[in-house]
């Protein structure tokens, strides 16, 4: 009886037809719609919405297609471990904390973040936009990078249209236009941006990221707060590498991670990429594996060569140089490596300074096109001569 009563109740509730009286029909229809609405609300609460999932899974860009958590393991590590909060961003603490204050107060000026590659400029801007805009992140951010058409027409049409567009925002927040790799924008486009920045200043903020701030025209620089990012220190990169290695359950040695830090040269993107390549290629993170993957002259070999130079032994030093040359490394690869190794070497301070000067001068010659083995041998000869002088 109970089941029958329940079925009747549901039928009665859901089925708006079959009744003669018109008013009653409308009432039933209203009830039916209300019931549907309830059902919809209920299903939404039970199943997590796709939008919130996206926010967590795709930190890399505001308009990327959704990635399911199960697909996350196939992401390159630079994307998988891209920070989504300011606290996770390594290094440049002063600049990041300044941005943190802007974000909490909500009063963000137009900003330019300038700095070398792979130190977290794009990441920082995306974090800022995410904190400021919360759930409106997708609609209220226009992200343009060097892969997009960014001539004068885009500024005139796309950026202006976005600035005029009405979007629901959290209180006292503005839309954000992210111009990544802004140093590749043409001067015309930058000129066109000047007035747009002012006209829509009450509704839109601009965040620019670039490697070379000199390529941003002065009037744009004067409209923005300039924030400079520097290369990350070896300790900062090492800490991140340890964290990622542990999360990925990698087999690693301290020397292996140090080798990655050496090859990365303050670039976190390069460090994570090298870590992943070594892990995929060899499984364990050891110096030999790292230098095979990164295809750099082995620093231990280079260090040995410089030690021979510091003892004034040109024959032994030349043997190593000839070996490196035979392995196919270019003069630029070798000289860069010699410079980095010489900085870390345990030499008398004065000798070290002279060594670095000689290495720098040879580097200049190589960049000018004198990139033969003779140049490299000449460098070794001069270094040996210096050592004899100081002995
Ligand atoms: N400071 C950092 N802290 C943590 N991870 C970082 C940091 N900098 C870079 N990374 C890692 O490197 C990746 C690339 O960083 P990002 O895109 O922000 O570099 P960028 O400074 O914009 O470089 P580019 O000038 O080449 O555009 C990130 O996905 C992240 O995994
Ligand atoms: Mg970038």
List the keywords.
binds adenosine-5'-triphosphate; ATP-binding; DNA_pol3_clamp-load_cplx_C; alpha/beta; 391 residues; 3 domains; Zinc Finger, Delta Prime, domain 3; 7 strands; nucleotide-binding; ATP hydrolysis activity; nucleus; Rossmann fold; Helicase, Ruva Protein, domain 3
Tell me about this structure.
- 60% of the residues lie in helices and 7% in strands.
- With 391 residues, it is an alpha/beta fold.
- The chain has three domains: 79-228, 3-Layer(aba) Sandwich (Rossmann fold), CATH 3.40.50.300; 234-294, Helicase, Ruva Protein, domain 3 (Orthogonal Bundle); 299-390, Up-down Bundle (Zinc Finger, Delta Prime, domain 3).
- It has a five-stranded parallel β-sheet with strand order 2-3-4-1-5, sandwiched between helices.
- Strand 2 (141-144), helix 7 and strand 3 form a beta-alpha-beta unit.
- The protein is elongated.
- 30% of the residues are buried.
- Mean pLDDT is 85; it is low at 48-59.
- The structure holds adenosine-5'-triphosphate and magnesium ion.
